[in-house]
Amino acid sequence: MYKICNRCIMDTSDPHIQIDGHGQCGYCTNFESTISPNWHTGAEGERQLALMADVIRNAGRGQDFDCIIGLSGGLDSSYAAYVAKEKMGLRPLLFHVDAGWNTDQAVGNIEKLVDGLGLDLYTDVVNWEAVKQMQVAFLRAGIPDQDLVQDAAFFSGLYRFARKYKVKHIITGSNFSTECCREPEEWGGYLGIDSALFGDIWAKYGDGQAGKGFPLVDILVYKLWYQKVLGMKVHHPLNLVPYIKKDAEDELESRFGWQRFQHKHHESRFTRFYEDYWLPLRFGYQKRRAHFSSLIMTGQMTRDQALDRISRPEMDEHFLKQEFEYVAHKLGLTVNELQQLFDSPKKTYRDYKNKRDLIGFGANLMRKLGLEKRYFR
What are phi and psi of 285, to 5 degrees? Predict the structure, then answer.
């Protein structure tokens, strides 16, 4: 029986969603009970932000920069860079991983922020053949989690750089304001970079040698070794400042000429295609439900607005057809070959070797310790 939360728009396309007797889902109740009471963007947020800045600044004395920020050109990372420089007084290095799918708009936004903030940029260009072969292997695997390849390249590049140059502090644009509702793992929301999953998919579907050189730092390595043993620290300053999506877009636009995207994650051409075409049409999952639900919970969008927006595709049919052809050709496939993969049997990560139980144990432990407040499902 179809059900939908009466507060946000999360529904039974999340097959394990829990909706209580009042019609509210677990994502909304978690926001009210766990996130909202511990989310401070007023005076307490200012105090915590100042303390965070002092810790990072003191650790960076005598260094060329005192922290690094992974910059995609999208809103969250762009605003995090602005906050770090202008509100925290830090000297961050902007770090960009080019996995081959940047939109021109994302590249333009990065250039504008570099110039406007007067910061240095380091670009890590991943071997395209390695990315391409790994992405094709994941497509052949038939699972919903098609953006894991890009995510692995981004985070692995960032963490490897930080370890190599002994950078202790990383600033992320991850936040409650636009991401308090985390999509369930069935929608391609796998909990992290799992080297066992990557290894098994490559063993079964990899073709060629370049993919073996794909950069990969396992989640247990960067969560335990890098952070707990080596002392690397990841900071979330956007949770300590007033961060309203439209206001942040307006501010970046007026200060730097930054250009807003039609929707979240549209700075990557592959992610845009994956979330707007592949995932909803092949699997029936709309990550926009989680994105819009986050904005509903944080008072930035009404439920009626979200229902209206979700009722129609984000991109028109003609554009998506062109993107289908572009993605096929860029991955070295014919349109017919990509269509065959689209029509192939659907699988999940459970069909492959993985460390999901161990990763899940770690995620649940983080929640119990109060170090993770979002609802993982």
Answer: -105, 135
Please report, in tens digits, the pLDDT of each residue of the chain (377 residues total). Answer: 899 999 999 999 999 999 999 999 999 999 999 999 999 999 999 999 999 999 999 999 989 999 999 999 999 999 999 999 999 999 999 999 999 999 999 999 999 999 999 999 999 999 999 999 999 999 999 999 999 999 999 999 999 999 999 899 999 999 999 999 999 999 998 888 999 999 999 999 998 776 677 889 998 888 888 888 889 999 999 999 999 999 999 999 999 999 999 889 899 999 999 999 999 999 999 999 999 999 999 999 999 999 999 999 998 989 999 999 999 999 999 999 999 999 999 999 999 999 988 887 766 666 665 655 555 55
**Start-to-end CA span in the chain (Å):** 20
CA dihedral 188, 189, 192, 194 (to 10 degrees): -30
Residues 6 or more apart whose CB falls under 8 angstroms from that of 244 comprise: 177, 300
Q: Where do the domains of the chain lie?
A: 41-292+318-368
Q: Which two tokens stand for residue 253?
A: 């636009």
Residues 7 and 25: their CA atoms lie apart, in Å, by 8
What backbone phi and psi angles, to 5 degrees, belong to 170? -120, 130
d(CA 332, CA 330): 5
Helix (H, G, I), strand (E, B) or coil at 300: coil
- 6 phi and psi angles, rounded to 5 deg: -90, 0
- Edge-first strand listing for the sheet containing 121-125: 121-125, 92-98, 67-70, 169-171, 233-235
Give the CA dihedral 365, 370, 371, 373, nearest 10 degrees: 100
Checking DSSP bridges between strand 92-98 and strand 121-125, what pairing results, if any? parallel
Closest alpha carbon to 268 in 99, 135, 126: 99
**CATH, range 41-292+318-368:** 3.40.50.620
Amino acid at 21: G
